[in-house]
Design a protein that fits this description.
Leucine Aminopeptidase, subunit E, domain 1; alpha/beta; Aminopeptidase; about 500 residues; binds manganese (II) ion; 9-stranded mixed β-sheet; single chain; 2 domains; 15 helices; binds ligand BES; binds zinc ion; 7-stranded mixed β-sheet
């Protein structure tokens, strides 16, 4: 898909479809009025007939409008002008793109971005439009041998975003950033959607190596023997129930000065989570192929950061293995020694994410990080607490929490902070080891975060629980690519603040 920013007047516009906003009730936007006078008031006559009242997300496709060069004019409802906010903009954009994609139009010009959105600026509008257009084109059925009509027939190839001349510089920058972020999102979605038999730890490692060939990223893969040498007894305990070899993937982007402390991202890479000996129930177990979405988001961010040549140092670390039951699998009651030296009683083998993350979190001490963020589909309890709209955010650093919250807000990929108080720590007490790997049903996401906090004492740290946001269930089943946009906005804001 090709995008461009232009400030062409409607009468000079040659796209196969020209998209015009209509406010409630029956009020043409400024560009709509221009087009209306060119077409001998054809548009206002249609509106007067009552065929389109401008309700948010409503659409009306017109063909061969008199005296207009374009084959199609699409009217899109924007709702009440004084209520035109982010939400209304997004539903108008989605409705417009779906409607254009239903036709054979290979190109479209959007005259919607000049409209003022109460709580979204031009950069936000451009980015969200790019995301929406690529999301609309995204195909989840890449392994289907016959393309279904949904994915095959979408003809739209060229989208022109019309902005006022004064906004074009901001718009160009936003477009460049949005395209890089969207490519990271797409990579994360693709990896999430791949089944566990294809997307194994080895496969993830290959993807990282490929990124290292395509971009100036340094890639290193640690094997089981390397992890043994490092004493990663906790990660290896999870991996021991699987025939797939575990991998610890390290990717480095060096865009900053040699002496700049890096931002480190750690992504949970369980390529399938059966629960292990504490086996999960069968219903929807297939969705546990998404348990590597934290890892996928790290790869997506590394790709986007490299493409944008972000002037900072960034390290991505991915502990990856499968969690399966087996004769050799780790059992409830087993006690393992983590790389940090702390011992862990494995009371539930389904709380495996924290077991692989804790060793990765100890490993990253060697990078002397400016800060570490781990991204993990860590707990079902987080889905219960926050649903599918916000990722769970945990950190004891208020400034870092604010940075991440603001980045999520800017990126339309929000996170909500939950407490990480010491009061919860005692739920992890074990009679036999330094700690247990579960803390009971109460505050399940918080005790999971508390567990991780015991391995992050040496640096500034935040944890994102993306169990509810990384994929959608039901009819729209599939990866979302979240929180790549949040993380990229976090990094871009840090670059801008420097
Ligand atoms: N990968 C799961 C968490 C998860 C559950 C993500 C549902 C997305 C949807 C994680 O490994 C897990 O199984 N967590 C357990 C922890 C429990 C045993 C303390 C959970 O949430 O049930
Ligand atoms: Mn689990
Ligand atoms: Zn898991």
């Amino acid at each position: 898909m090709e995008f461009s920013i232009k400030n062409t007047q409607p009468e000079k516009q040659r796209a196969a479809c020209i998209v015009i906003g209509v406010y409630e009730s029956r009020q043409l936007s400024a560009s709509g009025q221009q087009l209306d006078s060119l077409s001998q008031a054809y548009l206002s006559k249609i509106l007067a007939m009552g065929d389109m009242d401008g309700r948010t997300g409503s659409t009306l496709m017109l063909h061969h409008v008199p005296d207009i060069h374009n084959d199609r004019v699409l009217l899109v409802g924007l709702g009440k002008a004084e209520e035109f906010d982010r939400k209304a903009f997004l539903s108008a954009i989605h409705a417009a793109l779906a409607s254009v994609n239903d036709t054979g139009a290979p190109s479209a010009a959007l005259y919607l971005l000049q409209e003022k959105v109460s709580n979204g600026d031009m950069a936000w509008k451009i980015e969200q439009t790019v995301f929406a257009a690529l999301d609309e084109k995204y195909c989840v059925g890449k392994l289907k041998t016959k393309k279904d009509k949904d994915s095959a027939s979408k003809a739209l190839k060229k989208l022109t975003l019309i902005v006022d001349a004064a906004d074009s510089r901001i718009a160009e920058t936003a477009q460049t950033q949005a395209l890089a972020i969207a490519a990271g999102v797409e990579l994360a979605k693709d990896l999430g959607n791949l089944p566990g038999n294809i997307c194994t730890p080895t496969y993830l490692a290959e993807q990282a190596l490929n990124l290292g060939k395509e971009f100036p990223l340094k890639c290193e893969i640690l094997e089981r023997k390397d992890m043994e040498k490092l004493g990663m007894g906790s990660l290896l305990a999870v991996a021991q129930g699987s025939r797939q070899p575990p991998k610890l993937i390290v990717l480095k982007h060096s865009g900053g000065k040699k002496t700049d402390a890096p931002v480190v991202l750690v992504g949970k890479g369980i390529t399938f989570d059966s629960g292990g000996i504490s086996l999960k129930p069968g219903a929807e177990m297939d969705e546990m192929k998404y348990d590597m979405c934290g890892a996928a988001s790290v790869l997506g961010v590394m790709r986007a950061a490299a493409e944008l040549k972000l002037p900072l140092n960034l390290v991505g670390v991915i502990p990856s293995c499968e969690n399966l039951p087996d004769g050799l699998a780790v059992k409830p009651g087993d006690i393992v020694t983590s790389m940090s030296g702390q011992t862990i009683e494995v009371l539930n083998t389904d709380a495996e994410g924290r077991l692989i993350l804790c060793d990765a979190l100890t490993y990253v001490e060697r990078f002397d990080p400016a800060l570490v963020i781990d991204i993990s589909t860590l707990t079902g309890a987080c889905v219960i607490a926050l649903g599918h709209h916000a990722s769970g955010l945990f950190t004891s650093d208020d400034a870092l929490a604010a940075e991440l919250e603001q980045a999520g807000q800017a990126a339309q990929d929000r996170a909500w902070r939950l407490p990480l108080w010491d009061d919860y720590q005692k739920q992890l007490d074990s009679n036999f080891a330094d700690m247990a790997n579960i803390g009971g049903r109460a505050g399940g996401s918080i005790t999971a975060a508390c567990f991780l906090s015991r391995f992050t004492k040496k640096y500034k740290w935040a944890h994102l629980d993306i169990a509810g946001t990384a994929w959608k269930s039901g009819k729209e089943k599939g990866g979302t690519g979240r929180p790549v946009p949040l993380l990229m906005h976090f990094l871009l804001a840090r670059v801008a603040a420097k």
